[in-house]
Design brief:
The protein is mainly beta. It has an 8-stranded antiparallel beta barrel. The longest helix is centred in the first third of the chain and has 14 residues. The protein is globular.
Length: about 120
């Protein structure tokens, strides 16, 4: 009986969809015209690249748009020393916060700042 309960619970848990935590995953921009894939690098930092963009921005696919992202546990957010907006041709630094499947990138360049909201795509 104990073995049967363990088997049923294991089967149930394996059938549940896996929800990713943290910054890794595929994110849709607020304009819904691009998808960014954020992945962990061997050195423990994260980077993001465009994996899909609507025309006329299809040439941006494969472009690196964030690098050297690290989690700052003291502040409870990710720090990004380099984030790039190819439409504006501007690189900046950013603070990234997560709330469930929403990611807010607060980019700052000098005295100008901008928030961009992304939504995690569930696989």
């Amino acid at each position: 009986m104990k073995q049967m309960v363990i088997t049923v619970l294991t089967s149930f848990l394996m059938a549940m969809p896996v929800q990713k935590e943290g910054i890794e995953g595929i994110w849709l921009t607020s304009r819904q015209d691009s998808k960014i894939e954020i992945s962990r690098n061997p050195d423990g930092t994260y980077s993001g690249k465009i994996i899909w963009a609507m025309p006329p921005h299809s040439s941006y696919e494969g472009m690196l748009v964030m690098k050297d992202v690290q989690y700052n546990s003291a502040q409870g957010c990710y720090k990004c020393p380099w984030v790039y907006d190819p439409r504006l041709n501007i690189a900046a630094r950013a603070k990234i916060t997560l709330s469930g499947d929403t990611m807010i990138v607060h980019a700052t360049k000098g005295i100008i700042s901008k928030n961009e909201v992304f939504t995690r795509l569930v696989e």
